[in-house]
Design a protein that fits this description.
Elements: H1 5-15, H2 24-34, E1 43-45, E2 51-56, E3 63-69, E4 74-80, E5 85-91, E6 103-107, E7 113-118, H3 128-132, E8 142-143, H4 149-155, E9 162-165, E10 170-171, E11 177-180, H5 183-200, E12 207-213, H6 221-230, E13 234-242, E14 260-265, E15 268-269, H7 272-284, E16 290-293, H8 300-304, E17 313-320, E18 328-331, H9 332-348, H10 351-359
Parallel strand pairs: 3-12, 3-13, 13-17, 14-16
Antiparallel strand pairs: 1-2, 2-12, 4-5, 4-9, 5-8, 6-7, 6-9, 7-8, 10-11, 11-18, 14-15, 14-17
Length: 360
């Protein structure tokens, strides 16, 4: 299938490899796109590797941060066994049950990529006890298809190398349903880039920072440092949400029905004044949205809300199926509506409106 330019962009982002601390490839990609919008001197990188592009609409206007985290969940090689299997440490939240028998890539320090699979015992060999319980991550190993440790070393694979899920981007039967790895959170990176590109062609009464943060999956670390660096007046974290539209869920949040605005998550109580403005703009422009909450887990908005004297912030999410697994599905319309809504909201955020949001 020949992909449109939009889909090609999403495919590229999804297929980049980058876990917490190893986001270089994603950062380079975001930088390339940011440079289509701003000059080199308007791009900043903090000490942990988060990247921010500054687009000035009004030099004296408030600072608006739109942040997507660049890291995906994955693993780090911790040991090579004598037989040539790789033991690993997970980076980000994995549930053991979704890991067995899945394909992964190992990226070496030289940038070589090798395919492997997490080995699983056939049912024939499982004890009655093992059959009842999910496998333990500590017992798992990655099989690169080599003879022994020596062969692994010859490949240049070392302790400390990154392991990432290996699946390719695929539009499904209904081509708006996009299957891919790392939607958490390359879709947020895509939104941060696209919002900046659209605003470049519009008037906006503020300074907008498109941001790719690092190490979100291990505790919102890059949001802390990049938030500190930018010191924004308003922050939107763009991230995946959880679609609740599959068997066994309550059907409360559905893919394709608009971006999900979180009223509550484990790291943030969505700022009420900011939410009012966003919902007002959505209604005015007939952009669909959904309200959602997250009992556990948070987004970068939580960390940024606590920098300096505090920042009104919101988690702005794309309802996605099967997050924190090897693969996931999201709906293209939600991506497009998220961009549309953020662009219209940002056009509204002049100093007066931001003061009202903050102080009233
Ligand atoms: Zn995320």
């Amino acid at each position: 299938m020949k992909l449109t330019k939009d889909l090609e962009f999403l495919k590229e982002l999804s297929e980049l490899n980058g876990i917490g601390g190893y986001e270089k490839e994603v950062r380079k990609y975001m930088e390339k796109h940011f440079l289509e919008v701003v000059d080199k001197e308007d791009i900043m990188v903090d000490g942990l590797g988060s990247i921010a592009a500054r687009l000035v609409g009004d030099e004296n206007g408030p600072k608006i941060m739109v942040a997507g985290h660049m890291d995906e969940i994955g693993m780090i090689v911790t040991k090579i066994t004598d037989e040539g299997f790789l033991k690993f440490q997970t980076v980000g939240g994995w549930w053991s049950q979704v890991m067995l028998a899945q394909e992964f890539n190992v990226t070496t320090r030289e940038g070589k990529v090798y395919r492997g699979v997490i080995g699983s015992k056939p049912p024939h060999l499982l004890s009655p006890e093992e059959l009842k319980n999910p496998a333990k991550i500590d017992d798992m190993f990655l099989d690169l298809g080599v003879k022994d440790k020596e062969e692994v070393e010859k490949l240049g694979v070392r302790v400390g190398d990154m392991i990432t899920p290996a699946i390719s981007f695929t539009p499904l039967a209904n081509p708006n349903y996009l299957l891919g790895k790392a939607w958490d959170n390359r879709i947020g990176c895509a939104i941060a880039i696209e919002v900046l590109k659209r605003l470049k062609k519009e008037k906006h009464p503020n300074i907008v920072y498109g941001v790719g943060t690092v190490q979100e999956e291990v505790g919102l670390r890059g949001a802390k440092t990049s938030g500190q660096m930018i010191n924004p007046d308003i922050c939107f974290a763009v991230d995946v949400g959880i679609a609740k539209d599959t068997p066994g869920t309550d059907m409360s949040v559905k893919m394709g029905e608009g971006p999900a605005i979180l009223v509550y998550d484990g790291a943030l109580i969505g700022h009420v004044g900011l939410r009012e403005v966003v919902l007002e703009v959505a209604k005015e422009h007939n952009i669909p949205f959904q309200l959602d909450y997250l009992k556990r887990g948070g987004t970068d908005a939580g960390a940024v809300s606590l920098v300096h004297q505090g920042v009104p912030a919101m988690s702005f999410c794309i309802a996605t199926r099967y997050i924190h697994s090897h693969t996931s599905i999201l709906h293209k319309d939600d991506y497009e509506n998220a961009v549309k809504l953020l662009v219209e909201v940002i056009k509204r955020l002049d100093r007066e409106t931001v003061n009202k949001i903050t102080f009233e």
